[in-house]
Write a structure and sequence with these properties.
single chain, 70 residues, alpha+beta, 49% strand, 2 helices, elongated, four-stranded antiparallel beta sheet
């Protein structure tokens, strides 16, 4: 039982680990920019990175920006 508790505790440390993560964005499929999100958990960094997603129509052209956590 102790081994299971130690294993679960170790997994929780890795899951909730805060570290620097890279967010890469593309515009209409072409690489546009990358930036570092510092000292965040994976889920928090993903949420911050996803804030960069957008779709804008200008003069009949649609510009789609998609950001993904690396």
């Amino acid at each position: 039982m102790k081994k299971i508790m130690v294993l679960v505790g170790a997994l929780m440390v890795f899951v909730a680990c805060k570290k620097d993560r890279v967010c890469s964005c593309t515009v209409n499929g072409a690489e546009a920019t990358s930036y570092t999100i510092k000292n965040k958990t994976k889920s928090d960094a993903k949420a911050e990175c996803d804030e960069g997603d957008a779709s804008v129509s200008v003069l009949g052209f649609t510009v789609i920006t998609e950001c993904e956590l690396n």
